[in-house]
Design a protein that fits this description.
Layout (H helix, E strand, L loop, with lengths): L5 E8 L2 H11 E2 L16 E6 L17 E10 L5 E8 L5 H10 L4 E8 L5 E6 L9 E4 L15 H32 L2
Antiparallel strand pairs: 1-5, 1-6, 2-3, 3-4, 4-5, 6-7, 7-8
């Protein structure tokens, strides 16, 4: 039997302008909501996640384009330049089809996603727009019996260290690209 909801988290890596564009085009919140006002991880708001705008040049409309997911308990934060994170709950498993679409529309961004069923029926983690050395997202993994007592890690220590190194490298590359762009623009205006 499936649990009553799935708890999901997403870390997005890329240049600041592209993250901002993704946030503006793909996250719809109720007017006046503050997704950064979290209360212990449970004070989030309703949200629609997915691409709801005009398709970029070069993309043909398919039956999948325009797919969105209704989410509850939506929260977000920006831990450091080059990265932005959000978490949300869904009634169904992690919305892979939505994130496959988003990854195809935002190829310059890398999405590291995690999920766990509220009744521990399954869990998942991995990447969309998989960076070198990363593993593609999947959510067919068994939740270990000691998951909640061993710190709640979905990966082995070696896998976790590998993903952390990949994430740090992606964030650093994004910061450097943003800095180089600012330096170039400043030099043009001298």
């Amino acid at each position: 039997m499936m649990g009553c909801e799935c708890w999901n988290s997403v870390a997005v890596y890329g240049r600041a302008a592209e993250i901002k564009r993704f946030r503006r085009l793909c996250i719809e919140l109720p007017p006046g909501s503050n997704p950064r006002n979290m209360q212990g991880g449970w004070g989030g708001c309703e949200a629609e996640i997915g691409f709801m705008g005009i398709l970029p040049t070069g993309h043909e409309r398919t039956s999948r384009f325009g797919t969105t997911v209704s989410a509850t308990n939506y929260r977000e934060w920006a831990p450091e330049p080059g990265t932005w994170s959000f978490a949300f709950d869904t009634r169904d498993p992690f919305p892979e089809d939505v994130f496959e679409e988003l990854a195809s529309l935002f190829p310059a961004l890398h999405f590291h996603c995690e999920c766990i069923d509220s009744m521990d029926d399954y869990m998942g983690f991995g990447w969309f727009n998989v960076p070198p050395g990363g593993e593609a997202f999947r959510q067919d993994m068994t939740v270990p019996n000691d998951f909640w007592t061993n710190g709640g890690s979905k990966q082995t220590p070696a896998e976790e260290a590998k993903d952390l190194a990949i994430a740090k490298a992606l964030a650093q590359a994004a910061r450097e690209a943003d800095r180089d762009s600012r330096d170039f623009l400043a030099a043009r205006h001298r």
